[in-house]
Structure formats: C-alpha cells, structure tokens
Amino acid sequence: MTVCRITPRRLHRRLLVLACAGSLGLLACTGPGDAAAPDPSAPSAAATPAPASATPAAAPADRGALPFAATEVATFDEPWAMAFLPDGRLLVTEKKGGLKRVDPATGASADIRGVPEVDYGGQGGFGDIAPHPDFAHNHVVYVSYVEAGDDDTRGAAVARGTLALDDSGGGALQDLAVIWRQVPKVDGRGHFGHRLLFGSDGKLWITSSERQKFDPAQDMQSNLGKVIRLNDDGSVPADNPFAAKGGVTAQVWSLGHRNLLGIDFDAQGRLWEVEMGPQGGDELNLVERGGNYGYPIVSNGDHYDGRVIPDHDTRPEFSAPKAWWTPVISPSSLMIYSGAMFPDWQGDAFIGGLSSQSLVRVEFDGDAAREAQRFDMGQRIRAVEQGPDGAIWLLEDGKGGRLLKLTPR
C-alpha cells in the first residue's frame, strides 16, 4: 500500500494553489500535464509567493507608488530578448523571426536581415541574441531559435555568425553556422528555454528546457532539461563535469531542470537560473558544477493532472532551490543588477513575470535568496536587461509589446 504523507509545507502549498485558483483562475505555468499549452497568461500579480526560506514575501507594489518611472521607447511584434551592443544600440528579437537594431535615445529601429528560418508556434520561434565578449573587434553574435525536424518534431538551436551593420541603422547576419542543437528533437511546442549568456571566462552558457517530456531532464544521453556550457566555437570545455563521457553528455553543466528562462552571474561569479515549475514551485537556483536539481523526481509544485510530486526536502541528494514560488510568478528572464542608477539595488536579482505581470526583486544573503519586492507592471514581462548607464530595460510580451526604460523617480 502506498501512503501519501501530507507535510505542513505541502498542505500550505495546496491551500495556496486552491485559494488562488478560486479567486484568480488558472495561474500555473506551462507544464507536462498540459501538453503543448502556451505560455501562462492568467494574471497573478496579487498572489502572495511562498519562498523556500519561509520568510514573508513583499506584497505587490502599488503601480502608482513605483520607485521608478517607466518610459516607453518602442513597440515590437512578440519581442522575446534584447542585448546591448558596445555602441549603446540595442538588438531586439521577435518570435516570428524578426531582428531589430534600436536606437535607445529615439526608439528608431531598423531591420537586421539574414535571420535563420524559425519554426514558429506555441512557445517556439526566434529566441535570444548574445554578442560575443569581443564583439567590438570581431562583430560575432549568437542567436537561438527553434528549428523544425522530421515527422513534426522540433528543437532549439544556437547559431554563430557575423553582424554586419550598415549606415541605415540596420544590417545583416552573415555566415551563420549552427554550433549547438537540442537532442533529441521531439514533438510539441513548449519548453525550449534557449537563453544565452557569456561568462567572464568567455564560455557560452545555454539553458535547455525539457520540452514538456519529464524524463529527459534526468537522461544524460539527452541535453534537454540541462544547463549547457560550451566554448565560443561550440566545442566542449575540457573542465566540464562530464566532459570525459563524450557526446551530448559532455556539454552538460547541471541537470534536473524544467523550463529554464533566465540565467545570470552575480558579482561573486556565481551562476543563478530561474525556471518555471509545474503547478506551483517556480524556482530560483544557484547553479553548481555537476548539480542535479531533481526534476521531475522532486518539485515544490505538482503535475497539472493532480499527481503529486514529492517536495525537494524529501530527497536531500538533489539540489533544492534557494527561493520558490507557489502560486507561481511565471518567470521569463533574470538580470542581476550591478549599475549605479539604482544604488540600493546593486547585487539584487530582477525577474520578469509573465502570468504575474510583474517585475520581481530578489535580495541575496550569501547563498540564500528571498523575494524583497514585487512591482505590478500591468503587462506580461518577457525580458529584463541592464543598460549601459544603469537603467533597467523591460520588454513586454505579445503583439505590441513595449520596450520600457526604468529610471529613478
């Protein structure tokens, strides 16, 4: 006979989910239980999160009392990611396959040609863009996108190429070559991940979500549900934790992840990632070499069909999140702030929220993390980035998604 033990934390979690569902409708992120579901869309900004530390979370800020002014700079068609170039111009990707070069001072934008063909639909399409650390000299950029496979399958890919800029404000991607792919390609249109990040050592980091297929997150013959670390040419660094095993296993830095949509380094050089949980249990994780974060064996959320997933504290051999949210915030992106424009926030993390329509500020205390403040933005936030002058930049999700510049009041 199987006995289901309802721990106080699980009971608290269930009560939060039931209360939230009764008053606000479905809040959960996309997950394996709702195959091919779109990104979460129901608002949950008023929900109270339950961080793993059990410290009280800040209530959502009144939009009229936000500590920053939000200035609209431009609008886009389903924007997904942005990256600043050394000259201060901004690159913005659009899910259907658009790439824009934007003047942040005026909002004027021009098209970048040569974007690879993307498999658009559901959560799939054109994804992230990351300039090479030496872009000022080599003009190399990296793009992630979803590509079609055989028999109605698809997966994320990362390509490297040269960005040739022209006097009209636009330009073209040239000599694109794929340096990484999700393995295997599977059906469905959810959970690609494919956020890109360069570390101070010049290594390329890629988030590879588990494609709503559960088990690949623990399968070392697959690179799904993993954090990936590569050299800038796509080869595998010799000091990766599983490099000696070869194949896609060698690419893996950490495993046991679900839908990873934000990644950044803090000032101490530690790597953090934020990922969507199933029905509850969005996570902020400190990513460690060779770490296993437990999905789908453990989670602080449950499956959408009601099946229980054991909590992280039942399996201490897996790395537990440093903060978690039930009800969910539906994290889309992560930026750890280092600028001077908001000096009180230096070292804090900022998470874009989709269903929560929020910008979430997280404070760190050593390896511990807690939500400190939640700003109600009134729209789904797809991306958050720090500008060269220390301003915080946001991209709203969807058609007509605005590019917003946040500056102190």
UniProtKB/TrEMBL annotation:
Q: Where is this region: Disordered?
A: 34-59
Which UniProt keywords are listed?
Oxidoreductase, Signal
Give the E.C. number(s).
1.1.5.-
MF terms in GO: oxidoreductase activity
**What top-tier enzyme class does this entry carry?**
oxidoreductase
**Pfam families listed in its UniProt record:** GSDH
**Presence of keyword Oxidoreductase:** yes
Segments forming domain Glucose/Sorbosone dehydrogenase: 76-405
- SUPFAM superfamilies linked: Soluble quinoprotein glucose dehydrogenase
- Where is the signal peptide, in residue numbers? 1-35
The UniProt entry, under InterPro entries, shows: 6-blade_b-propeller_TolB-like, Glc/Sorbosone_DH, Quinoprot_gluc/sorb_DH_b-prop
Q: What is this protein called?
A: PQQ-dependent sugar dehydrogenase
Q: Which organism is it from?
A: Luteimonas notoginsengisoli
